Amino acid sequence: MDWVLHYFKILKEYARDYVLENTGLKVLALLITAVLWLSVASRPVSQIPIANVPIEFPNLNQSPLLAVSKADTLNARVFVEGPRDALDSLRPSQLTVAADMAGVEAGVRVIPLKVDSSRLPPSVKVREIEPRSVRVTVESVLSKEVPIKPRFEGRPATGYEMTGWKITPTTVRIGGAENQIRDVSEASTETVNLNDRTQTFSTRVAIDTGSPNISISEQTPNTVMLQVILGEVQKERTIDRVPVTLLNSPRGARAIPAYERVTLLGAQSIIDSIVADDIVVVVDYQNGAGGHRFAPQVSVAPEFADRVSVKLYEPKRVVVR
């Protein structure tokens, strides 16, 4: 038993020395620890809502490809709790609200919402989320080819107009949920400004599907080359009493009626300057197919031929007697 008593005596002396040795430093360390604990424990705890946190829909089926076409809401409100200074520095991007779509099939589904708080400071806790679930419509994703139509704004300079346009390529393949893409018959381009334009021009423009839920196929370019054709304002003008000229006709023959009524179409500045003498109406007697009724040939003087066309002439037949 003596050895046991001796052992306890040694432990007692060691404990006394351990406690009493450097007593001042140990007391100081204890005080610092207590102050730090009290500082943390006494920090005021607050709870705040973070609104408009986007809801994500991960793990949608890829075969067949599914998409969320409709949702009761696309944003959630998350209530977080923690020290005021930590909450003041919190950014909405640090929160992720997810509706896990793993194993979900097409149809109307109610999916519980979960908050990924892994990016939050340790002192901040998520207490509640509104709503707790989201009602969504899940549909198969379809794709189809649609024509592309340009979108314009503004007006060309005075006296000019757009006479046509050309897009290359002319179509685009788009994809989206069945309900969203069913009634889509075309895609458009971003807006092209025509203000004060006087000459034909080409520009590369982006394609606009009209909805963020309708995407452009990865195999299809998302831009097209657009050529806009501009020219002078076109005008119609009718000129009466344009004389009919006979060719290769018998001596003394005459045309009935002797005049044609001709309607021209062309650039306004040219149309306004044309007179009856600038129009040629010819009846070639030798080219007749028998009888005395002929279809006249109507043209304009060569200097106007590239900017003016004959739209109409009356009468359509001339009698030669």
Outline the structure in words:
The structure is a single chain. The protein has helices spanning about 1-20, 25-40, 85-90, 180, 270; strands spanning about 45-55, 65-70, 75-85, 95-100, 105-110, 115, 125-130, 135-155, 160-170, 170-175, 185-195, 200-210, 215, 225-230, 235-245, 255, 260-265, 280-285, 295, 295-300, 310-315, 320. With about 325 residues, the chain is α+β, with helices and mostly antiparallel strands. It folds into four domains: about 1-40; about 45-140, RNA Polymerase Alpha Subunit, Chain A, domain 2 (Beta Complex); about 140-230, RNA Polymerase Alpha Subunit, Chain A, domain 2, CATH 2.170.120.40; about 235-320, RNA Polymerase Alpha Subunit, Chain A, domain 2, CATH 2.170.120.30. Strands 2, 5, 8, 9, 10, 11, 12, 13 and 14 form a nine-stranded mixed beta sheet that branches. A five-stranded mixed beta sheet has the order 6-4-1-3-7. A five-stranded mixed beta sheet has the order 20-18-15-17-21. Strand 11 (about 185-195) and strand 12 (about 200-210) form a beta hairpin. The mean pLDDT is about 85.
Instruction: Name the beta content range.
Output: over 45%
**Tally the helices: what do you get?**
5
Q: What is the gyration radius calculated from CA atoms?
A: 43 Å
* Derived structural class: alpha+beta
Give the % helix. 10-25%
Name the shape in a single word. Answer: rod-shaped
Largest sheet: 9 strands, mixed
DSSP summary, beta strand count: 22
N-C termini distance: 160 Å
CATH fold descriptor of the largest domain: RNA Polymerase Alpha Subunit, Chain A, domain 2
The CATH architecture category of the largest domain equals Beta Complex
